[in-house]
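User: Now give one protein:

AI:
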Amino acid sequence: MGSEAALEPVPEDWSRALCVVAHPDDLEYGAAAVVARWTRQGKDVGYVLATRGEAGIDGLPPAETGPLREAEELASAAVVGVDDVVFLDHVDGLVVDGLDLRRDIAEQIRRFRPDVVVTMNFDLTWGGVAVNHADHRNVGLATLDAVRHAANRWLDPGLGEPWGGVRFALVAGASTASHYVDVSATLESGIESLRLHRAYIDGLGSGFDPDDFLRSNAKRQGEMAGIDHAVTFRLYEA
């Protein structure tokens, strides 16, 4: 996908993007600042979450955690200009990359009809020795497969009219990047969107600081791109 020394700007001559991830808060670790930029440009952006993150807080049972994290995600999405948020209700921590997941995502692609699809790192690690969550890996791969599935009119016609208009897919948090988006003007919105996941952050119990985490990451990625603050992606043609 090209080296990190030769990053290119993500093309922005399009109108609609659909972001597909596993859990509430996944998009807020960087990509939400990009979404804020796009919605300020007048683009339509929708979110699809495979789960409600109900298994994500050790000290709170899933029946309480799911609705709480759903509410946090809706508020977080609103901060960056997104009001189209769909939860697929796969089981948090047990998401399987199979036909059921692919079909669910393909149905949302056919409904939203995006030009661009965004998902998360599906590699085994984040580029080091820390293993990536299985839900992230499975949703990321299923999303790329769902783009092709959604375009084929002979596959699951009951899911809606086929949509083959996706130009490219962007993978956030990829271990190797090819493209970047300048978030210098929208980083504060991205930080606020992560802050709104208060119950989840408190549940981590590690003193995690959204401002420091996002600002330092955006600065580091900005240096790679030759600008102040950036979020990087790996781009795949659809």
